[in-house]
Amino acid sequence: MTEISSPMRPQMSFAGFRTIGRWWLLLALIASLFAFAAGRPQMLDGGNIVTILRSASIMAIMVLGLTWVIAAGKIDVSFMQIAALANMTTAGLLAQGSGWALAALCGIAIGAVVGLVNGVLVGRMRLSPLITTIATGGVCASAAAAIGAGTSIRIDDTGLLGDFLAARLGPVPLIALFVAALYAVAWWMQERLTFGHYIYAAEQNEEALVDVGVPVHRLLVLVYLISGVCASVAGVLLAASLSSGQPMIGSSYFIDGLTAVFLGGMMIRIGRPNVIGTATAVLLLAVLVSGGALLGWPDYQREIIKGALLLAGVAMAVRMGRALDGFARGGRS
Fold first, then answer.
1. Of the candidates 112, 77, 89, 101, which has an alpha carbon nearest to the alpha carbon of residue 247?
2. pLDDT averaged over the chain?
3. pLDDT single digits (tens) 55-110
4. What residue ranges carry the coiled-coil annotation (predicted)?
5. Of the residues 62, 86, 224, 246, which has the fewest C-beta atoms closer than 10 A?
């Protein structure tokens, strides 16, 4: 028995570490929710849960495309300013008497154009993704401010989009169910289609993909285009949610967006951004914001915790990767 069980232990330990490494963020989400509830029972009130899901849903849409940009080994720091520009474009057109359909389509089209520009500059012209998206983000921020002359634009009627955001199916907001379906489709694309495989391969070895005939430049254009569209859709939804256009709204989503994607990369595919990890991290951040508000934490404390959470996630991923390698070698020996 000793000779049989001894070589089995590394394999069992390896499986245990792999399971913990893949799902630790979900466990952290559940633990955080109940930890806040222990201090403030209203954390689990139906109204508060609805608020958490609604705010997390909009953020999840905003960073869905960003997840794939970073998974491909690139960066996009213009996503939040694209959302702000789409937000102000929608509000500005509504203020001029346009209907919601036209205003929303124009806001989304603006995001698509900026995403396409980012993709062409990075994917085809091979410019630095960081410098490129800093520049386009700056242009978007300036344009958003110019639309409202530096001030917000009030929206008197949020229309059908406002009704959609307020709607529930039982206790669950309809927008949360829509986002869950959207992420399920995105997961299928990421895991089952060559599109998803090429994204991760591009991060590993872009030149090798080019050598075998994969049009990497088109792939990069596409992921930046998706990022721009997702950010602009979130901006339009924020216009209906806040009943206003806010030119400075992008700054509040910068840290949260990047944290969600990088922290989400510490789950499922350890060290590699993925949509399920991003969705879980977005929920974790929403719980942190809500719980911190109920406990009376000032904003700076919540920002410190978010930064610490990101660093802890990266440290855990590195440590877990080393442990997994060690168990794998032990299992093979």
1. 89
2. 88
3. 999 999 999 999 999 999 999 999 999 999 999 999 999 999 999 999 999 999 99
4. none
5. 246
CATH number of 23-33+41-320: 1.10.3470
| pLDDT, mean of residues 187-208 | 91
Output b/e per residue, 219-240; b: 16+ Cβ within 10 A.
bbbbbbbbbbbbbbbbbbbbbb
Please give the pLDDT value at position 191.
93
Cα–Cα distance for residue pair 29/41, rounded to 1 Å: 17
Helix (H) or strand (E) holding 155: none
Q: What is the pTM of this model?
A: 0.88
Chain CA centroid to CA 331, Å: 36
Distances (CA, A) of 236 to 38, 76, 124, 315: 36, 19, 29, 36
Give residue 192's pLDDT: 94
What residue ranges do the domains of the chain occupy?
23-33+41-320
Q: Please choose, from the candidates 4, 23, 30, the residue with its C-alpha nearest in 3D space to the C-alpha of residue 291.
A: 30
Residue with token string 């978010």: 306
